[in-house]
């Protein structure tokens, strides 16, 4: 046998021995799974009122890949007859795993020391975040890169100021002097991605028309909404300027709902004022809250804005 043949036989023997060794140890090798691949993960902490509430209970089951909204089911806890915008963005309109922690409370205002309807406020929601999530526990190991906080509040504050005949500029300034420190607190915790939504055109809600009948009342309410939205936009602008390392997105819910109310037939609704508890055939689920189809339309519309936040 020449040298070349010897090398060939030796190489073949080594190859066969390697195969046999691999087969013998196969059962002890860690198994790879392609049915559950590693998936990018995003943490979302939402603050606000009934438009964002999902019924999530901090003290119960936390969000996970199998149940991204935690202990709340996809429907109960909302005031839409189904999902709300948070549910759709968590379970449908995204490209990665989104774990949502909605700390929003139905009936909430920014701070009960200024305006209250007898429910929890956004100040208490941020305090709940401090107590349960600011330390980045094992149940929510968030980072600056993979976490978003959102704020959609103001509807109840606006109606309170209107009902008490407050001066819009003074009242809104007082509100925002409480709002801004809450945002700063979350920034100091390490949050760097912020989403703000302004007040929708609640002047056009059935509730405002049921409880008021004079043109001047509608004008005063609309003026309060405008003052709040202008003030909020200015606050967000200054916050963004003061924190260049933060990504700040402002979504104009007033403009989107106005478009829907001005063109209800384009969205499959009979008109801009009807109410139906099915949440789909009318814009309104009850006299203040839009139905689940509206929330779905808005969630879809928000995607272009959310791209800057890594959505």
TrEMBL record:
Keywords: Hydrolase, Membrane, Transmembrane, Transmembrane helix. InterPro entries: GDSL, GDSL_Est/Lipase, SGNH_hydro_sf. The keyword Metal-binding does not apply. The chain crosses the membrane at residues 6-23. One of its GO terms (molecular function) is hydrolase activity, acting on ester bonds. It holds the Pfam family Lipase_GDSL. It comes from the Eukaryota. This is Cellulose-binding GDSL lipase/acylhydrolase.
